[in-house]
Amino acid sequence: MVLDATERVPLLPELDGRNGSNRAAGNHALITADNDLDALHAWLARFVDTKTTFDNYRKEAERLLLWAHVELHKPVSSLTHEDLLAYQRFLGDPQPASRWIMRKGRKVARSHPNWRPFAGPLAPSSQRQAILILNAMFSWLVHAGYLAGNPLSLSRQRARKAKPRITRYLEEELWNEVKRTIEQLPKETKREREHYFRLRWLFSLMYVCGLRISEVNGNTMGGFFCRRDKDGQERWWLEVTGKGDKTRIIPATNELMVELARYRREMGLAPFPLPGESTPLLLPIGGKHRVLSRGGLHAIVKQVFERTALRLRQHGEANAFLANRVEQASAHWLRHTAGSHMANQDIDLRHVRDNLGHESISTTSHYLHASDDERHRETEQRHKLRW
């Protein structure tokens, strides 16, 4: 079952949605589902090939389904506009907490008795994202002929505001402190060296290439390839498939390839990967060739930030501001750091856009075309690791 958490919550037969008050009349349905659970499965089936999207969409559908049954004793197909307004408020403060919020500490599997749908209250941005996903879900169910109307379509549509300037990144001083934390790690035993070189490689990869965590655990070392530019110089690139299943190539600078070779030697591998090699971009300690989870990668990065904050505090109150800031950082800050530092080094914004895989700089940037060789050359010259 896709919505497997519903197996542990008794969904009463009378709440399965067969007779939901918002069910479409007539025989014009484009899907075979005759109850809410099957209808939600039909909607989610469209995203099974895109794990990140599927996981996010399943999470929001499951939360709404459980809330409707447990709190309102209603099927999803009977929810009204007013119900959805109440749900939006609920997302900001899921109560009772013992029923809805996970205990603090180690995360548990969805099948575990202590699993809960929420880690805590959702931030405003996460609330908006949840509602956007549910709005898309309801719209699709209407289009599929399962529902008569979308109860979220009555919500006030706010004009899009220009996105504020990125502030969640590490300034040069703080980025240097993070590197210093990694450099000061012990390197006496084989395990300590493996831990050190893995962190050094991960932070180098995310900084030079501006990767998302999902792109680190969703791609392999076989994505590295070498080709000659028009001047006959060999240049390394990394091909990744990222958000929206879009593939892009990113300059792999000489510094990055040195870090890769160093990490691979430590793991008992040849310095450079072969085309199509299935080795994950980051390996677990111990060298097993399996993919680390996104949660595991987030935890690895977060631990480095926390160690940096602790080290800064040990050097006096003067560092309190920097310590507090790096303590707030997450893995995605490294992507923002990469983009911000590239821009600060006056790398052409078209090259920054293509390195990060953004859709565009602005509407007019759809008409701009940057040379790949030029992009590699400029990234190589100006976007430095400087370990």
From TrEMBL:
Q: Which domain of life is it from?
A: Bacteria
Q: Where is the Tyr recombinase domain?
A: 165-381
Task: Return one GO MF term.
Answer: DNA binding
Q: Does the keyword Cytoplasm apply?
A: yes
- Short name of one Pfam family: Phage_integrase
Which BP terms from GO are recorded?
A: cell division; chromosome segregation; DNA integration; DNA recombination
Core-binding (CB) domain location:
38-142
Name-wise, this protein is Integrase
What is the species listed in this Swiss-Prot or TrEMBL entry? Noviherbaspirillum autotrophicum
